[in-house]
Amino acid sequence: MKKAALPLLVLVAVLALAISSSAADEPVKLGLGHVTSIAKSQGLTVDANGKVVPPMAQVDSTIAAVAFDKDGRIVHVHLDTAQSQINFNRDWTISTDITAPGQTKKELGDAYGMRRASSIGKEWFEQIAEFEKWMIGKTVDEVKALKVKARDAAHPAVPDVPELTSSVTITVQDYIAAVEKAWENAVPVKAGGKNLSLGHDVSLASSKPGAPQVDTTLAAALFDEDGKVVGVVLDVIQSKIPYNTQTSQLAVDPEAPVLSKKELKDNYGMRRASGIGKEWYEQAAELEKWMLGKTAAEIQNLKVKQRDASHVAVPDVPELTSLVTITVEKYLAAVAEAYNGVK
Question: What letters, b where the CB count within 10 A reaches 16 and e where it falls short, cover 207-239?
Fold first, then answer.
């Protein structure tokens, strides 16, 4: 009897360890962070050959969707960058096709064109996948403690640890900062999260002569094994880059931080114009809450109505009509894209 009991005790111990390990890996928080810069934008310049170069606006948004366990360790992470340019002619007409949807570096894949310039022959999406893999199981403090080195002025923080030097030669300071923001903004999620993904919509369509604008809609979504949402964070980065059309120079500090609608909170200024007296972040929180427990298909099937030309898809269901009056088509699409990209 005693001899037979030993394997049983071992089995119980192994099962307990497996359950404990599984619980430790269970995501309990979901965060969405970004670092957005307009610093590469420039006014009218003259090159070394005396050629006049028209103004060019550029928005770089580095984005991190991250799921954390109860100990603050990273369980899932998705990193991406949306790099958008808007070019002008000398008469301030826009030469960029602003109707085309913007693509992130991950979406561009091999078309981004880093491989041929890479000393290790790896494209951006391959390098970022290695960096994401390195982050798994680490806390934000451990990620921030990564040893880096300056390669040149454009690459001030390249990983300098043996496990990354042969696979990641991009500069990583903004990805680390975005992950830190994701941790600071993280919200609780329901149990059962298995797949994390990041959906987005990048639009230049609101740009006007002398007033370029990039609107980046984001959805970090965590799904269970049945494809139901157990956690979702929505946000919009509205990057405006005003110019002085008389001097053809920027009319804003290009080094100033660009805040998302959630970061702006009451400073976004929707409350006073809202028919229900709610700010954007409050309405987004209600939409996020409504999405919980639903599949991407059920979310897409939300009944909506057109309020006016600027609000073509306002929720038209009893549980949302008094809480959400913003137009939601891009948020629904971003969640659908997130579901399609789960890994």
Answer: beebbbbbbbbbbbbbbbeeebbbbbbbbbbbb
